[in-house]
């Protein structure tokens, strides 16, 4: 019979089953490496958990605004805050729009400017327009849709049939995600958001549009310069 003697074979098998001991120096190095990795991971976790999160300015801290109000110009809570309640079908709002844009440019970096919805029930497409703008706002295009509404107001204002399809074409023109836009328009929460502005406006004494508030006080305007005069006084205080 060929092969190693039983005793010698058993010795070889035991040798294969028994792992060789690593040198002490190698073991020490491995332990040190593991400890170093643990320290690095702990440091990274500490930095991530202890670093303060960036907090966006709370729009609700401004007078006559909500946390979700559409703040087109933001300087800070200490700057004068101009809030406009408007109706996209209101002809006076449309006439005011270029003037308001001039004011924004004139006082750029000096005032906060906020837009709030106030769709007058007697205007057939006021709510449709506001919902379309709010749906666009959910994709970061509030101001673009706002501008389109006033630029085209003469084409659809005072009509007695729904202009929802026209407003949808504006969303397409702006390159919005149409599935998201359609979902937002169909979502009752979108109209509810508009109605919240309207209800708060009524509670604040808004009876028509446009109505402006400066630092929480409703302005009585008899001429266009009354608005800039009020802003100048607020900046001088």
What does the model show?
- With 237 residues, the chain is α+β, with helices and mostly antiparallel strands.
- The chain has 2 domains: 45 residues; 174 residues, 3-Layer(aba) Sandwich (Glutaredoxin), CATH 3.40.30.
- The protein is built from 10 helices and 5 strands.
- A 5-stranded mixed beta sheet has the order 1-3-2-4-5.
- The radius of gyration is 33 Å and the shape is globular.
- The termini are far apart.
Q: What integer value in Å does the Rg equal?
A: 33 Å
**How would you state the average pLDDT, rounded?**
83
In spatial order, strands of the major sheet run 1-3-2-4-5
Number of continuous helical runs: 10
- Per CATH, the architecture of the largest domain is 3-Layer(aba) Sandwich
> What is the CATH level 1 assignment of the largest domain?
Alpha Beta
**What structural category arises from helix and sheet content?**
alpha+beta
Form type? globular
Largest sheet: 5 strands, mixed
Please tally the β strands and state the result: 5
The fraction of residues assigned to DSSP E strands is 5-15%
């Amino acid at each position: 019979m060929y092969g190693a003697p039983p005793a010698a074979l058993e010795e070889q098998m035991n040798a294969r089953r028994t792992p060789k001991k690593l040198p002490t120096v190698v073991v020490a190095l491995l332990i040190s490496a593991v400890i170093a990795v643990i320290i690095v991971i702990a440091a990274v976790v500490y930095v991530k958990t202890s670093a303060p999160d960036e907090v966006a300015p709370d729009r609700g801290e401004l007078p006559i605004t909500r946390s979700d109000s559409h703040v087109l110009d933001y300087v800070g809570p200490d700057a004068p805050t101009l809030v406009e309640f408007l109706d996209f079908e209101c002809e006076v709002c449309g006439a005011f729009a270029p003037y308001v844009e001039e004011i924004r440019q004139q006082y750029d970096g000096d005032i906060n400017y906020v837009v709030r919805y106030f769709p007058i029930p007697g205007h057939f497409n006021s709510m449709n327009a506001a919902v379309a703008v709010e749906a666009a706002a959910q994709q970061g295009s509030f101001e673009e849709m706002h501008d389109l509404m006033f630029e085209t107001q003469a084409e659809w204002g005072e009509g007695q049939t729904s202009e929802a399809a026209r407003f949808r074409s504006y969303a397409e023109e702006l390159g919005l995600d149409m599935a998201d836009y359609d979902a937002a328009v169909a979502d009752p929460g979108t109209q509810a958001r508009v109605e919240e502005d309207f209800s708060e406006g009524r509670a604040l004494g808004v009876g028509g549009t446009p109505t402006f508030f400066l630092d929480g006080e409703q302005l009585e305007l008899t001429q266009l310069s009354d608005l800039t005069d009020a802003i100048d006084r607020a900046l001088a205080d």
